[in-house]
Structures are given as structure tokens and as C-alpha cells.
From TrEMBL:
Residues 119-146 form a coiled coil. Keywords: Coiled coil. InterPro entries: P-loop_NTPase (IPR027417). This is (d)CMP kinase. It comes from Candidatus Nomurabacteria bacterium RIFCSPHIGHO2_01_FULL_42_16. SUPFAM superfamilies: P-loop containing nucleoside triphosphate hydrolases (SSF52540).
């Protein structure tokens, strides 16, 4: 099996996928694609929240199909970091990374990001840590259900990945360094 110059990044909600993918892409001189940003844009275009879109996707299979097609298209490129829950599944020859973070810590990171991320502000709303925790657990449950039904895949099963990085115990700079180092070893094998 030929390895591609593609890093797929999945992980816990609030685990730092976007920031990490940006940093890894910059460090390696790769492009970046985010299915989360793509999904947020779909929600905005439809005039609904991200959680509403996730719930709608449980019965409307075209939503996930649209996102999956964009991920697959990105996977046809080389030198790209793809931030997506299912990219590891669609692009099996990629270097597959999972960013791990407990939801109790993720909720604070998401609240902080809501203050500075315009796209997230428009597609997600929550004023308290409790609201965020409720929304991220609902979204995770919805995604797990959908992906299991649609593809027979559990995107939280860490056995699907080449590398698991704890983003609570490592800061962003350390996470990027770990991923770049392990990716270079993977490519050299």
C-alpha cells in the first residue's frame, strides 16, 4: 500500500483539530481542508445552527454525502492536512491522527474559541459552559449514531489511527511537533 503525503486529523470536539491542522500544514508547507468549516458553512447557508444541521443529517443522508464528497476530493490532493472526523476512513493511505481531550476540558476551549472565531460564532451559540457541554455531547452522540448507521464506522475508536495525541497534556506547539515528527517517521518507513 502506497503512502500518500496526506495527514488526516480527527478527534474530540474542542480537541484543537483546526489549530493543530493549521500549524502542521504550515510547518510542512502543506495545504489544509476542514470539513468542520465546510459543515459550518452549510449550516449558515441553510440558516441553522451546527447542532440543528447535525440533527437534520440523521434523517437527510444528502448532508453527510455532500461533506464526504468534499473530503474525498481533498484526499485526491497531495501535501494536505485534512481536519475531518471521517477522513481516516475515506483516505486509508493517509497518516491518521486522533487528538484526544476530555469533554470537561473541551467545553472551556470551545467557549474561548467562540469569542474569536467568526464562523463558529455564526453557526454555534452558547453562553455558558453547561450549554456548550450539552451541545458537544449531543453533537458527538448524533455523529456516532450517523456514522455507525451510514458506514459502520466508530470515528472515536482509537484503533483506527496511527497516532493519538493528548491535547490536554501537550500544548499546541508540542502537539504540532509530535505530529510532524511522527509523520516524518511514518513516511520514512
Amino acid at each position: 500500500m502506497q503512502k500518500n503525503e496526506i495527514i488526516t486529523m480527527a478527534g474530540a470536539l474542542g480537541g484543537g483539530k483546526s489549530s493543530t491542522a493549521d500549524g502542521v500544514a504550515k510547518k510542512l508547507g502543506f495545504r489544509r481542508f476542514s470539513s468542520g468549516d465546510f459543515m459550518r458553512q452549510i449550516a449558515l447557508d441553510m440558516g441553522m445552527s451546527l447542532n440543528e444541521l447535525s440533527t437534520m443529517a440523521e434523517t437527510d443522508k444528502t448532508i453527510d454525502a455532500k461533506i464526504d464528497e468534499e473530503v474525498k476530493k481533498a484526499g485526491e490532493m497531495e501535501k494536505i492536512v485534512i481536519d475531518s472526523r471521517l477522513a481516516f476512513h475515506w483516505i486509508p493511505n493517509s497518516f491518521k491522527v486522533y487528538l484526544d481531550l476530555p469533554p470537561e476540558i473541551a467545553k472551556q476551549r470551545i467557549l474561548n474559541n467562540l469569542k474569536v472565531n467568526a464562523l463558529r460564532q455564526q453557526s454555534e451559540s452558547a453562553a455558558t459552559l453547561e450549554e456548550i457541554y450539552k451541545k458537544i455531547t449531543e453533537r458527538l452522540d448524533s455523529e456516532k449514531k450517523r456514522y455507525k448507521e451510514l458506514y459502520g464506522v466508530d470515528h472515536t475508536d482509537k484503533n483506527n489511527f496511527d497516532l493519538i495525541v493528548d491535547t490536554d497534556k501537550n500544548n499546541l506547539k508540542q502537539v504540532i511537533k509530535i505530529i510532524v515528527s511522527e509523520y516524518k517517521k511514518w513516511v520514512a518507513k
